[in-house]
Amino acid sequence: CACRGFALGDVEHRQEEAGSSGDCHLPGVRSVYDDQPNAHQRFMEKLDACIRNHDREIEKMCNFHHQGFVDAITELLKVRADAEKLKVQVTDTNRRLQDAGKEVIAQTEEIIRCRVQQRNITTVVEKLQLCLPVLEMYSKLKEQMNVKRYYSALKTMEQLENLYLPRVSQYRFCQIMIENLPKLREEIKEISMSDLKDFLESIRKHSDRIGETAMKQAQQQKTFSTALQKQNNVSYGRNVHLGRSRFMESKNEITLKRTFEEDDEHEEEVLTAQDLVDFSPVYRCLHIYSVLGDGEIFENYYRKQRRKQARLVLQPQSSMHETVEGYRRYFSQIVGFFVVEDHILHVTQGLVTRTYTDELWNMALSKIIAVLRTHSSYCSDPDLVLELKNLIVVFADTLQGYGFPVNRLFDLLFEIRDQYNETLLKKWSGLFRDIFEADNYSPIPVANEEEYKIVISKFPFQDPELDKQSFPKKLPMSQSVPQIYIQVKEFIYASLKFSESLHRSSTEIDDMLRKSTNLLLTRTLSSCLQNLIKKPHIGLTELVQIIINTTHLEQACKYLEDFISNITNISQVTVHTARLYGLSTFKDARHAAEGEIYTKLNQKIDEFIQIADYDWTMSESDGRASGYLMDLINFLRSTFQVFTHLPGKVAQTACMSACQHLSTSLMQMLLDSELKQISMGAIQQFNLDVIQCELFASSEPVPGFQGDTLQLAFIDLRQVRHYTIVSLSKLPEKKRNVERIPYQIIYIVRIFLLLII
Q1: What is the pTM of this model?
Q2: Which pick of 95, 207, 564, 746 has the fewest CB atoms within 10 Å?
Q3: Which residues form the Exocyst complex subunit EXOC6/Sec15 C-terminal domain (predicted)?
Q4: Which CATH number fits domain 420-442+478-596: 3.30.565.10, 1.10.357.30, 3.90.870.40, 3.40.640.10?
């Protein structure tokens, strides 16, 4: 190796020299590229010569250093054995050192790792001490979100943003938290708004139950107060009807006892709106929006939605007027709505104000009044109208207890009262018609004292002369009189039911009852009587009985006034109360019946006159009055006998009217334009009929006429008869015996009659 090294060194030295000598050969190289003739061959020859020179120099150099090289190799071979031994020793030592250092290295590495871990742990602990509160608060936030404690969650967010997150804002997870907080706020707003919508839907569904509970509590309180008041006035109505007052007294005691028992049973069951509906969503939503600074937005939204619900609640069903349940549900929903608003007003700050509720109530009240006016006008059943009134009173009392003004509702009740009276009048009109149709229009027979007491217990009848008579006997009025009297009292009771609980004084109630009763008498009963009188099947006997009945009903009006005064506890002496117009009503009916009697008598006379069959050409008279006239007189006699129960003037007027109408009808026969001639026999027959009429008038068919007053009805016929006889006596004997009187004489008689008329 050493020889080789020396040789290589020498070669390098020679190359440097060759390089320097090569410079001398540059022209030769250049000549090769200059395209000189045989330049390449000469170059190659020179190159070969140069190579041979170098080889000789190398060989000389190797020969010169060969011995040194051999010596070096020999020394190197000697060292080789020691080197191998040393290598083995070094290798063994290295192996043993490596084996011994592995455990140290492992422990050192473990120590390094532990120290790194310790340093990292210390760093982590320090950072975690900063981050843990943030994470705990965020975890708390999540937990609050899960359990729907949104208001607390917002407070936690506020603490995170203002206190905790700024300390660790350099960490990525904090940035994520910061980015998530606005989203969580929006989520809370959406969730709370969703809960609010569910709450609004819930109270819309449960408002009728809330209102029903509130109205029930108000009604129980009112019933309790009324029962106490009735207990303090147990003699209420005793002077009116003893049996009825005793029943009412016992009924009041039972009602009061039952009221106390019910109050004891339900004392612990008094429910409020908060018991029926969970208001936490609205509280929570209000707090959340207030914390987020959107309280005004929430208030506007809440009020807008409640106004919409109010319009829905105030919209009634089309068939509400058909049943009382429809009205009850309508009122319950409205009461429930405003009970909720009143609760919100008192438990929140600013969400609902008194101004807002008053405005909402005024709007609702106008709508309610319009709805009730419309639907109550469809009610034709007085019982339904009465129940509606009771519902309105409870409705008004309930809302008044919550501070809402209800004066307009009580004003509406006065309008409904007029409608109620109209429905009562229609109902009682049917009752009166049924009574009149079922009446036999004959005096009431009583067989014994018990039956007599039953009748006078229903109708205030007094007749000392009749009391002296023994049983069996007959009362002058028919069955319809006590029934009408009872129905009038029932009407007063029915009218009183509506007047109760209207917060009116006894004087006003008394006045209302008298006005209603006057309407019943002057309009309903009067109309029924007028229609009854005008019915074709009502004969003279029935008309006579109707006059008698109206007389007794007229006398009973003062008892009706006392009855009203007793049930209202108003004295007629100390207070200027209205009077009943029954006197004029029954007088008008009686006058109508009297006029109908006169008309029917005249019609009956006309019927008899129509069957009159005079033979105006007869030669001789029958020697007695005509058969139709005798039947007519017999009919009049029997009819006037029935008139004995009528007032004297009525019977006298009827008799005079009948005689005058008979006289007029007989004269009309002579005034008939179709009658051209008449025989002496016919005149004699007609004279016999006139004489029979005069005899009837002189027989005094109806007592009370003075002198010949009734006979004056036939004075015209008497004058006609006298004139005819005188005229015939002036005729020649030959003409007097002719079969027919000339038309000229008949014409003269007619002129005379017309002058008399």
Answers
A1: 0.66
A2: 95
A3: 409-720
A4: 1.10.357.30
